């Protein structure tokens, strides 16, 4: 198993945040964690993969290819989607930033939770996952792995202790304000709040 995977496999989200000095940060610097564990980050349009037949099948089923992890005996390589972006458009800049942050957190989650798969040379792809069933009884193995990685990514980007700390200071916590504070999309924030059973105001 490559050294970065050995370093982080099996850690809880809080253990990982503490180990790499992000436990009290907000928003979490996910790139710094990945660089600190010596992961190789590659931003690419991913077109070199999208033409493969098995990838195309998954794109049709689960949505756009956003990233992947490739582990060798020595290196941990994380590829993430390079999006065309209008730097004068603040909404677009934030949207791309949030998508990238979640993709990186999701791939890091696979490294922690599913190191054994990666050790065997298994390529871990991240698609948009629009059609993953919330009912575990109806999910296949791939969907179970993706679902657990999504939950872990949410725990990394929106740690429960920081979220509750913020909620205690706000009279009326809105989805939009919380999303901006943690630098995540409203969908990610909504999923995290619902998962924890916390109340909020929908304003987006």
Description:
This protein is of the alpha+beta class. The protein has two domains: 3-157, no CATH class; 159-204, no CATH class. The chain is 52% helix and 11% strand. The protein is built from eleven helices and four strands; from the N terminus they run αααβααββααβαααα. Strands 1-3-2-4 form a four-stranded mixed β-sheet, with helices on both faces. Strand 2 (65-71) and strand 3 (76-81) form a beta hairpin. The chain is globular and about 50 Å long. It comes from Thomasclavelia cocleata.
Low-confidence blocks of residues: none
Strand content: 5-15%
Quick one: how many beta strands?
Answer: 4
If strands are numbered along the chain, what order do they take across the biggest sheet?
1-3-2-4
Shape by Cα distribution? globular
Instruction: Give the N-terminus to C-terminus distance in angstroms.
Output: 44 Å
Number of domains: 2
SS-derived structural category: alpha+beta
Order of helices and strands: HHHEHHEEHHEHHHH
Instruction: Give a short account of the largest sheet.
Output: 4 strands, mixed
Radius of gyration: 17 Å
Q: Helix amount, in percent?
A: 40-55%
> Helical region count?
11
Summarize model confidence as the mean pLDDT: 89
């Amino acid at each position: 198993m490559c050294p970065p995977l050995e370093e982080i496999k099996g850690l809880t989200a809080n253990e990982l945040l503490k180990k790499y000095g992000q436990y009290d940060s907000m928003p979490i610097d996910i790139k710094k964690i990945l660089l600190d564990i010596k992961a190789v980050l590659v931003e690419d349009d991913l077109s070199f993969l999208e033409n493969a037949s098995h990838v195309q099948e998954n794109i049709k089923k689960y949505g756009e290819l956003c990233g992947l992890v490739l582990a060798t005996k020595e290196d941990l390589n994380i590829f993430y989607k390079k999006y065309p972006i209008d730097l004068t458009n603040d909404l677009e800049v934030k949207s791309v930033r949030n998508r990238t942050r979640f993709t990186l957190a999701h791939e890091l989650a696979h490294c922690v939770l599913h190191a054994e798969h990666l050790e065997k040379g298994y390529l871990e792809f991240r698609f948009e996952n629009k059609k993953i069933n919330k009912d575990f009884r109806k999910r296949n193995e791939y969907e179970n792995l993706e679902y657990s990685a999504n939950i872990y990514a949410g725990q990394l980007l929106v740690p429960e202790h920081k979220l509750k700390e913020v909620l205690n200071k706000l009279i009326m916590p809105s989805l939009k304000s919380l999303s901006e504070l943690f630098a995540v999309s409203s969908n990610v924030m909504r999923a995290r709040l619902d998962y924890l059973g916390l109340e909020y105001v929908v304003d987006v």
